Structure formats: C-alpha cells, structure tokens
C-alpha cells in the first residue's frame, strides 16, 4: 500500500494531535503575544520620557501611570467609589458622562488583584489586562486551529497581538477581559460544550457591552445545527440554556442601571452622553449613528459608501469566512451586525473591532515573507497609534 505523504501532512496540519500539538500551539501563541507586548512596552517606556503637561498622562508619568489613563481613570473610580445613585446632569437637564457607561467586572477583578498582591491600582490594572490578553491570544489560536490549520491560526494570533490597537491588551481597559471571555465562550460552543460556556457568558455580561451579539451568534449556531440534525439532543438543551443566559445577560446592565438610579433609560442616556457633542441629539436610534457619520464624512456620498462597507462585510461573512468554521464565522457576522445597530463610529472603532479577530484566520499569504511584512506593518501602525494616544499632546482624534 502506498501512502500519500502530502495528503498526510495536510491532514496533520488541520487535525493536530490533541495533547502535544495543542500544547505546542499554546506555547507558540504565548511566545507571539510576549514578543508583541515586549515591543509595545519598550515603546511605552520611551513615551514616558516624551510626555508633557499637555498630554493625557501628564509630564513624566510612570509606565503603569501612562498605561492607565483615558478610560482607565473611570475604572479606577468604579473600583473604589462605585456608581452614582443619581445621574449627573447639566444645566439643561442633559445626562453627563458618568460611571454607568462602564461595567464592573474588570474594575472588581483589578481591585481584588490589587488587594491580594499589594500592588497599587495602576499596576494591578495593567497586570490584569496583560494576563487576560495573553489568555485571549491563546484561546483565539485554539478556536481557529482545527478549522484553518496551525500555521494560519498562528498568523491570526500574530496579527491580533501586533495589531494597530493591540497595546490596549496591556492598558487599564476591560477589552482584554472581554476578549478572553468571548473567545473562551466561542471555543466552548465550537467544541459542543455550551453548558460550560454559561458562567463565561455571565462574566462577560458584567465586563463590556456586546453579549447580545453572543446571544445572536448562539441562536444562529443552534438554528444551523437543528437544520442539520433535526433532533433534540442534550447539546440542544445546553445551547438553549446558553442562549437564554446570553439574552438576559445582554440586557442585565441597562436594567441594573435603571433600577439603581430610578431611571429606566439611565444606561442609554449615559452612553448617548459620549456621542451627543458630535450628534447634538440625546435620542438613540438603532443603525442611525453610522449613517450620520457617513454623511458627515462623505456628504451626499455617505449612504452609498456605508452601503459598500456593509456589502463588503456581508460578502466576507458569506464567502471567505467559510474557512473559519461555523462558530467563528457566525460570530463575526453577528458582532458586525451588533456594532452596526448600536455603535457610533469614532476613533475607538478599531478597538471595538477586536472581538472580530477570528476573521483574521481567513487570511492566506503566498509566502512567509508576506506574512512577516503584514505583521511588521501592523506593528508600525500600532506604534504610531500609541504616539498619538499617549504622546506629548492630548488629542481627542485618537482616544482609544
């Protein structure tokens, strides 16, 4: 009997041995993440010598001080002061920016870490984000490898770790925690372990907005499985339980904010307070912010440009994303729809696109040289973004 060595090699690439290969994949993911964070850390350390009184971090901040500004200051307030019982308003009765826009999971965990280790809050916040960011990179690789092969999964992890906004994975933001939880939940769903994903999704619902996108993704995965199997199984029961938890979790924080402040729309009004200076409106209408921004940027051509963006995203989900496996593919589409419905595009958009990192698994490069060039370009863009965000002068055009 003859053995097709090429076919055997291809089979091993997409179906690695479950122990040794999985362990090797984890180590490679951690190595890529560590390399990326080393580069970013060196640059941020240098930036501490370049800041001025006009920068967001002030003159000559410490490394952790530089890394815990912007939203990090809100998280610190929550960690030690909690949330206001009454929404702050201006002279016209409009709700002002306040702590209710930020969920308690990350500041709570950070305060626990600070208490246990004795580290100050900034150091604990940065350290917590760094550890959770590393876990997110590993979970991303594990999610993609069975579907796209180890090499392309590692390329996706590299692009994720060196991406233009990857420095957020080591700053006092909740994104590392959310990415870790979301990728973990997707991995469990993909492996048919929806029951184990329930506590993960509950934690995610208290970390950052976006769990409604998880609910939509689980609903679509469940629908596809039902169409294929046409029978009720134990996994179906756990899928439905996860769907219910994600749906309730996605609505939980607005309900909590409304109950605590006595205003049912407290959370929505708080979120609008961040966009009102640009839109001039205190009313939330799904999908409208994207059209507003498109018209502001492109005038009469705004709607067609937005249509092209939406069409390109839909094309990606329907065709190239097929390589990602069902769970990751559906997640990318569900999260894109969620952002289109609730988010107003602004400078934080690249950061909020990070949960779509599984889409990176669809990238094919003709050679290792091209892959290295993509990672190098991402790194340069990241350092440029760092300079604009934490550099000598504060600029609202680069709020992370």
TrEMBL record:
Topological category with respect to the lipid bilayer: Multi-pass membrane protein
Protein's pathway: Glycolipid biosynthesis; glycosylphosphatidylinositol-anchor biosynthesis
Membrane-spanning intervals of the chain: 25-47, 121-144, 156-189, 195-224, 236-256, 297-318, 330-349, 369-390
Keywords: Endoplasmic reticulum, Glycosyltransferase, GPI-anchor biosynthesis, Membrane, Transferase, Transmembrane, Transmembrane helix
Subcellular location: Endoplasmic reticulum membrane
Classification via InterPro entries: PIG-V/Gpi18
Protein name: Glycosyltransferase RgtA/B/C/D-like domain-containing protein
Species for this entry: Amnibacterium endophyticum
Phylogenetic classification of the source organism: Bacteria, Bacillati, Actinomycetota, Actinomycetes, Micrococcales
């Amino acid at each position: 009997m003859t053995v097709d060595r090429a076919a055997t090699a291809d089979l091993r690439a997409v179906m690695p041995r479950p122990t040794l290969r999985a362990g090797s994949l984890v180590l490679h993911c951690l190595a890529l993440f560590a390399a990326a964070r080393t580069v970013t850390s060196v640059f941020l350390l240098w930036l501490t010598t370049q800041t001025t009184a006009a920068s967001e971090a002030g003159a000559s901040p410490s490394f952790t001080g530089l890394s815990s500004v912007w939203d990090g200051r809100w998280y610190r307030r929550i960690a030690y002061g909690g949330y206001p019982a009454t929404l702050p308003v201006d002279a016209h009765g409009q709700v002002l920016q306040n702590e209710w826009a930020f969920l308690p999971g990350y500041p709570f965990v950070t305060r626990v870490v600070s208490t246990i280790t004795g580290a100050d809050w900034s150091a604990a916040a940065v350290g917590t984000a760094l550890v959770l960011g590393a876990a997110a990179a590993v979970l991303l690789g594990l999610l993609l490898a069975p579907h796209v092969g180890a090499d392309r999964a590692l390329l996706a992890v590299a692009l994720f770790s060196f991406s233009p906004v990857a420095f957020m994975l080591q700053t006092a933001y909740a994104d590392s925690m959310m990415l870790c939880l979301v990728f973990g939940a997707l991995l469990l769903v993909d492996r048919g372990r929806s029951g184990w994903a329930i506590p993960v999704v509950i934690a995610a619902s208290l970390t950052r907005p976006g769990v409604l996108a998880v609910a939509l993704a689980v609903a679509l995965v469940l629908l596809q499985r039902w169409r294929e199997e046409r029978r009720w199984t134990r996994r179906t029961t756990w899928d439905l339980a996860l769907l219910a938890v994600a749906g309730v979790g996605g609505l939980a924080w607005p309900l909590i904010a409304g109950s605590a402040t006595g205003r049912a729309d407290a959370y929505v009004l708080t979120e609008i307070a961040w966009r009102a200076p640009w839109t001039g409106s205190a009313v939330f209408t799904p999908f409208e912010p994207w059209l507003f921004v498109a018209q502001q940027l492109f005038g009469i051509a705004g709607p067609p440009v937005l249509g092209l963006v939406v069409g390109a995203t839909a094309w990606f989900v329907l065709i190239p994303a097929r390589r990602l496996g069902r769970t990751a593919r559906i997640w990318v589409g569900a999260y894109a729809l969620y952002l289109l419905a609730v988010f107003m595009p602004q400078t934080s958009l690249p950061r909020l696109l990070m949960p779509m990192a599984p889409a990176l698994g669809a990238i094919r490069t003709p050679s290792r040289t091209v892959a290295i060039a993509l990672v190098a370009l991402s790194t340069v863009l990241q350092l440029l973004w760092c300079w604009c965000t934490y550099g000598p002068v504060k600029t609202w055009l680069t709020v992370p």
